[in-house]
Amino acid sequence: MIADDHSVVRRGIKQILSEETDIRVLGEAENSEEIFEQLYIQDWDVLILDITMPGKSGLDALIELKLRKPELKVLILSMHPEEEIAIRALKTGASGYLNKDSVPGELSKAIRKVYSGGKYISNSLAENIFLSMEKDENKLPHNDLSEREFQVLCLIASGNTLSQIAIELSLSIKTISTYRTRILEKMKLHTNVELTHYAIKHKLVLNT
């Protein structure tokens, strides 16, 4: 399935894949709602997911997808090369992360790699990730968060209420409130506004 809000992009991807004898596109979605409507229609092998869609972002959708169908292999497509987003997407459950500029030459290879159970990132992104690891980024407060705390931070920074996050993650509002308190304490922040500014500054969420 291809999930991208731009019909031109979906057509382009289908055109590229039409030349492959072992890959077929059997579904399309313009937003996260359409993804979930089709999620159980058939046993999808790979979902190609745009990370910047209207409504629920691709990263937020990925969190819910892995909760609902953890075995689904998801290949993230993005106009954004930021290694922080790529790392978090892979940690959240994506099987691959591909910049849209690399699609013509790498898409088929990426699909086959994730379908076979592997992970895929482009060489250019791998180099950026390696360079970022050489920097002293471990001192940034968000690196001390657990994966669940980071998910809550991203959802708050994306404008979700505690009630919406509780539904999203299938947890109680009290539990989400506790996560929020821990996040603020660890990061020495005081409000959701400060959390949001921090997340945008450090490219932890996409400011669309």
Describe this structure in words.
There is one protein chain. The chain is of the alpha/beta class and 208 residues long. The protein has two domains: 133 residues, 3-Layer(aba) Sandwich (Rossmann fold); 65 residues, Orthogonal Bundle (Arc Repressor Mutant, subunit A), CATH 1.10.10. It contains ten helices and six strands; from the N terminus they run βαβαβαβαβαβααααα. Strands 2-1-3-4-5-6 form a six-stranded parallel sheet. Helix 4 crosses helix 6. The mean pLDDT is 86.
Which helices and strands occur, and which strands form pairs?
Blueprint: E1 2-3, H1 7-17, E2 28-29, H2 32-38, E3 46-50, H3 58-68, E4 73-78, H4 83-92, E5 96-99, H5 103-115, E6 120-121, H6 123-134, H7 147-157, H8 162-169, H9 173-187, H10 192-201
Parallel strand pairs: 1-2, 1-3, 3-4, 4-5, 5-6
Q: The CATH topology of the largest domain is what?
A: Rossmann fold
List the secondary-structure elements in sequence, H or E.
EHEHEHEHEHEHHHHH
Count of β-strands: 6
Text of the CATH class of the largest domain: Alpha Beta
Helix content: 40-55%
